[in-house]
Amino acid sequence: MISLENIYQAAGVLKGVSRVTDLIEVTKLGTHDALYLKCENLQKTGSFKLRGAYYKISQLSADEAAAGIIACSAGNHAQGVALAAAKRGIDCTIVMPDGAPISKVEATRSLGAEVVLVPSSYDDAFSYARELQAQTGATFIHPFNDYAVMEGQATIGLEILNQLEGVDAIVAPIGGGGLISGVAYAIKKLNPAIKIYGVQASGAASMAESVHEHKICSTSSVTTFADGIAVRTPGDLTFPLVEQYVDEVVTVSEDEIATAILGLMEKEKLVAEGAGAASVAAVMFGKVPTAGKKTVCIVSGGNIDVNILSRVITRGLVTSGRNATLQIALEDKPGQLVGVSTIISQCGGNVVNVHYSGSDPSMAINSCFLTIGLETRDFDQIREIETALRDAGFHLVEKSTPNCNP
Length: 406
Known about the structure:
Elements: H1 4-14, E1 23-26, E2 35-39, H2 49-58, H3 62-66, E3 69-72, H4 76-88, E4 92-97, H5 102-110, E5 114-118, H6 122-136, E6 139-140, H7 147-163, E7 169-173, H8 178-190, E8 195-201, H9 206-213, H10 238-245, E9 248-252, H11 254-268, H12 274-284, E10 295-299, H13 306-319, E11 323-331, H14 336-346, E12 350-357, E13 367-375, H15 379-391, E14 395-399
Parallel strand pairs: 2-10, 3-4, 3-6, 4-5, 7-8, 7-10, 8-9
Antiparallel strand pairs: 1-2, 11-13, 11-14, 12-13
């Protein structure tokens, strides 16, 4: 079983291997309470996963180490295991789904691991990794459902207590539950008054459903760009710990996660992946009670795929009212565009693109659709622009800005 003694031992083992990551206070993310970030996105390999992987591998016997290790991961756990194996001089094979980001595959290879790509999903890669483990006798390093792995992750909790006096609440992302199980166990044993909140993506909410149903539940599929927490089934070891030590598990949407990533980049100069930003999204959008509390969000990782980063930023801009698209039905005559752009300028908006269409068969021959992309300050400014355009006699036929004010 997990124990405080082992967690303190893990902290000793990890000295000089993992970083004691910064705990920073933030004031610009739209909250008015004391909010702090535990920056595991600045950990070696860009994720907290190194902690659990290294401590688990450090506990292998000489025979187990000689037989080598196998792991399955789409990214963060792979890099943590590969680095830990390299430091311990142990042969390492990582099985990854072939859809894993190229950057994460190459980063794992660069750490000395043999990478085996398996077609289809993570579940198929996991099954193949288990087959390889049975054939070779190597030790399988599970990403979350292992007490030693949890104890390694729990060292984050010890660091938070050492770094910040008077912590009231800790918010952590949940995939399979390894991170929050370890942290919640350590925190509740040392200070049971501290609240622990878990956060899942709404499209991968297996732990939230399991806690609600008081039994382990699996989702038929996962739909989220936060690949670090895209887990279909919680661990049978992690679930009881979450039930016992976590006060509440909430969910956040893709748009809310994207908004948190944008806020962290723009206002705090921190790069977070989807899983890492989920805890911040929960606070920004009021999913957990933080009023009057010193709250710490664990930013679990920063390994976001650069190929989707621009789309995530755009989604975050739209969700936070910083980007809008208006469609206007116009009579096709000179001066119309000047009139529209003048109103937008007077309201302080900035036109970034314009598209003209006069070919819609449902329109009158002398009419057109004008689609305008805008940079805006917030939702209030968008509504100000829309009102001014309507007052001037323009007909807005489409609104694409969601009402997602944090």
